[in-house]
């Protein structure tokens, strides 16, 4: 065998030993794209809407009139500084009274007009509300005779309103001596508030049972 043939044979043998075929260029094998981990691909859950902060129990305890009803109409009275939208500003709602829980009048009126400020669609709180016709409402007010701003309102679908009322009732029942002092509650006024919330729950349950 001549020198050229010996050289070719050595090249072929070296290619077999290294796994590379002579005359071909080795190409890297394609890599599979990385699969995103569940933690990276998961979408963060939407946080629940914030529940408006409630006043101390003494604020509700001092309400001269408390009633449960249904919002039948909402109208806008005028704008407030920076609140000029159709659902913003000074508002007024007509409430059909289902049950008067506290009040000095010999008989509760069938309808009460309550006024409130709205900054919808921004969240409620700081005295701002966003009422809608058909909602159930529990109103703590100073009087029933004239349209006025309430001390506090709880509102929503009957089931949601019942859950809020039950939460207030349970909070009053769970108060220890320090919490009672902070909230201006005595054993006798605590009993009266629990009784009021029980009556409110019964009235809201009747609203739920009414046909639409």
Overview of the structural elements:
The protein has 212 residues and is an alpha+beta fold. The protein has a single domain, classed as OB fold (Dihydrolipoamide Acetyltransferase, E2P) (Beta Barrel). It is built from 6 helices and 5 strands; from the N terminus they run H-H-H-E-E-E-E-E-H-H-H. A 5-stranded antiparallel sheet has the order 3-2-1-4-5. The longest helix is centred in the C-terminal third of the chain and has 23 residues. It is globular. The N terminus is likely disordered.
Break the fold down into its secondary structure elements and pairings:
Layout: H1 3-18, H2 38-41, H3 57-61, E1 65-78, E2 88-102, E3 111-119, E4 136-141, E5 152-156, H4 158-173, H5 177-183, H6 187-209
Antiparallel strand pairs: 1-2, 1-4, 2-3, 4-5
Helix pairs in contact: 4-6
Can you give keywords for this protein?
212 residues, alpha+beta, OB fold (Dihydrolipoamide Acetyltransferase, E2P), 5-stranded antiparallel β-sheet, disordered N terminus
């Amino acid at each position: 065998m001549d020198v050229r043939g010996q050289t070719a044979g050595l090249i072929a043998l070296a290619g077999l030993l290294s796994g590379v075929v002579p005359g071909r260029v080795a190409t890297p094998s394609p890599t599979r794209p990385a699969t995103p981990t569940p933690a990276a691909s998961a979408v963060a859950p939407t946080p629940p809407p914030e529940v408006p902060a409630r006043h101390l129990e003494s604020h509700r305890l001092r309400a001269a009139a408390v009633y449960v009803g249904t919002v039948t109409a909402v109208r806008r009275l005028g704008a407030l500084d920076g609140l000029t939208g159709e659902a913003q500003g000074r508002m007024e709602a007509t409430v059909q009274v289902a049950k008067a829980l506290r009040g000095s009048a010999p008989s509760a009126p069938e309808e009460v007009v309550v006024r409130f400020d709205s900054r919808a669609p921004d969240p409620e709180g700081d005295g701002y509300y966003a009422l809608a016709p058909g909602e159930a409402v529990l109103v703590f007010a100073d009087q029933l005779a004239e349209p006025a701003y309430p001390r506090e309102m709880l509102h929503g679908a009957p089931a949601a309103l019942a859950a809020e009322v039950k939460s207030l009732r349970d909070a009053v029942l769970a108060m220890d001596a320090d919490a009672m002092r902070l909230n201006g509650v005595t054993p006798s006024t605590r009993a009266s508030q629990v009784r009021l919330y029980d009556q409110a729950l019964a009235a809201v349950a009747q609203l739920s049972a009414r046909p639409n």
